[in-house]
Structures are given as structure tokens and as C-alpha cells.
Amino acid sequence: MSSPDSTSACEVGPVAGVDGAAGRWVVAVLDGTHLSTTLVDTVSDVLVLTADCAAVGVDMPLAIPDAGVRASETAVRTFLGPARSSLFPTPVRDAVYAPSWEEACVIARVRTGKAISKQSWFLTAYIRAWEDAAPDPSRVVEVHPESSFRALAPTVTFTSKKRARGVAQRIAALSAVVGTVELLDSVRSLADGPAMDDVLDAVAAAWSARRWLTGEAVVFGDGSVDAGGRPDRIVV
User: Fold this and answer.
1) How much of the chain exceeds pLDDT 70, in percent?
2) Domains of the chain from N-terminus onward
């Protein structure tokens, strides 16, 4: 991989990437080629920590469909090809706010013809938290780290991020964004708790946020907004 591009990175100021970590949030802040990672408890904590960042990439749905599948997700799955299963579909709004997984499945079957998976159901509390926080859509954007890695290193066939080879592949890809020593130093100073893939996903999310800020990102979506006025877009 090439060395980090310090000139273009430094011109845009700090950006951040956010990834869930067992009920908490890993926040990776890239300022030029300097990386810091922090573990926080709530979405409010994320927004306070990233208040000075020009762009924030969040690995969580920030727009909720009323029916059907979001256009952004359909486009990202096409982009991912064989890795499309890494993107869980966002449940429809009434399912997101259902009191139980069983009731959410009933609603989803009526609205989309399919029940929702347990994995998608587990995301609903975090989806609600981000909607309640109402982050500024001109600064906070939805990202999908697996797509970010494929855009960052398109010739690499990534294996599971839970396995050693997949971790090594992602660290190597991120060497074009931040030095590997700097990355590992940041992980060493991080509070214990997150898995390595959570941290790497947060850094990849920050890279996509910076690309969005500089106009280099691919933006998936059809320009529509959800019931709350949030754009249906995924930034890579």
C-alpha cells in the first residue's frame, strides 16, 4: 500500500468515523495523518466528542424507510457483489419502533413480504438512538465500512474481518490512510472492550467521511428523504 497522503488529508481538518462496539461506540478521529480512537457510551457522547470534526461517518442507518427497501442499500449490495450479506437491511419504521422482535416481524411481513432477522432487530435500539439525536445531515453521514474497504483496496479479496487474515488485510488497506504504527499505538491507548474489527471499521468510516467532505466519495441513494427529512444515502 502507498504511504498516507498527508498533504490532502491535512487540508480538510479533523474527520471522524463511528462504529458500534457491544452497545458502546468506537470513535476514530483522523486529523491529517494523526489518528486517535476513543470508546464512548452513548450517541450524545459521540456527538460531543466529534463536535469539531468537519464530517462524521456513522456505521448505522440514519434514514428509516416507511415501506420496502432503501434505494441506498440496494445500490450498495450491487456494489458489494458476493459480500452483499455484510449489509443488514434497515427495517421499516413501524418495525424499528415495535416493542418486540416478534411484532416487528409481523409488521415487516405486511410492509415488505419478509420478516426481519435477529441481527437487524438488535440494531433497532441504535437506529432509534441516532434518530432521537437528530445529527446534522450536512455533517454526519451514513457509511458502510465493508464497502469503504473495497473502495480503498479494490483489488483485494477480503476475508472475514473476524479472522486474522481479514484483520491483516484491513490493516494493510488502511496503511494508505494512516501509518500502521500510528494505528496500533491508537489501539493500545484505547479503553478495553472493542474488538479489533470495530476499531478498523471506525477508521474506514472516517476515511469515507473525509472523501465525502472533499467530494471524492461515491454516494449511494436516489436523493429521497425519510419521514424525518433525513437523506437516504450511504457514503463510501
Assistant:
1) 96
2) 6-63+141-219 (3.30.420)
